[in-house]
Amino acid sequence: MAAAWLIIGFFMLLCPVMAIASVGSGTTNQQTSQAIGSNGLNDRVNAGDTTQRTNRYEPGQAETPDQLGELNIANDVTITYNNGNGTIAGSLRILLILTMIAIAPTLLICLTSFTRILIVLHFTRQALNTQTAPPNQVMIGLALFLTYFIMAPIFTQINEEAIRPFEAGEITQEEAIETGLAPLRQFMYEQTQKKDARMFMEIANVTWDDEMQLEDIPTQVLVPAFMVSELRTAFIIGFVIYIPFLVIDMVVASALMAMGMMMLPPTTISMPFKILLFVLADGWNLVIVNLVKTFY
Asked: Which of 26, 60, 157, 238 has a CA that sits 20 to 30 A from residue 257's CA?
């Protein structure tokens, strides 16, 4: 359930309309009255109108440990959300938003196509032997936008089927989490290899059946299986990209040895030929387009 909350929080941050941002709209007229009983404890006092009001307790006195536990001395916290009578305080709202921002990179790496894309781009740069061209910032930016392109239909479905109905009060929190996870689980299930899912099901002591459907695989099993499958797929694609550039290295090295120029590094001579081959073959188009097609 904790992982589910993290996932739904991440997509609430990405979508244009966030549940937390919508809470707290309007104005609140708050009035406070005080009533202290004869025993030194406080009675609950409701102030304000019936739509939005604030319940406050004034500090009281305690003579016994039981009375001490009933005093309003910040030993309990109550948050009323959405359909209640209160609003989330500004400092608490900022804390929740910062928490979502902190976990967003982890969720982006673990639950989307970002990992496969970035690893393939890294292998491409290594095969070209260009060291820092393109730089890391360009590769990460390209991976982010390709991830957004691939995951956009899923983000839109989560926003329309889970977040907006939850904000409108049409579904409960549990229903919003379950509905929001469904498209993401479907995406991960389609990209996960069966042997990886079987391995983690066995580790988790969950009975595995070859006819098992998506609904039978827990989220805590599906996520690591998806990540392992993504790493395997990315390395296979990287190996295929490496082959033509490896052939160029071997040809250049053999030519240099035949000419007796063994002290000259073969990579220095082969790099211009690699770049020339990559440009003539329209390499970036081939790599990126075919990489994106692997998710469809």
From this structure: 238
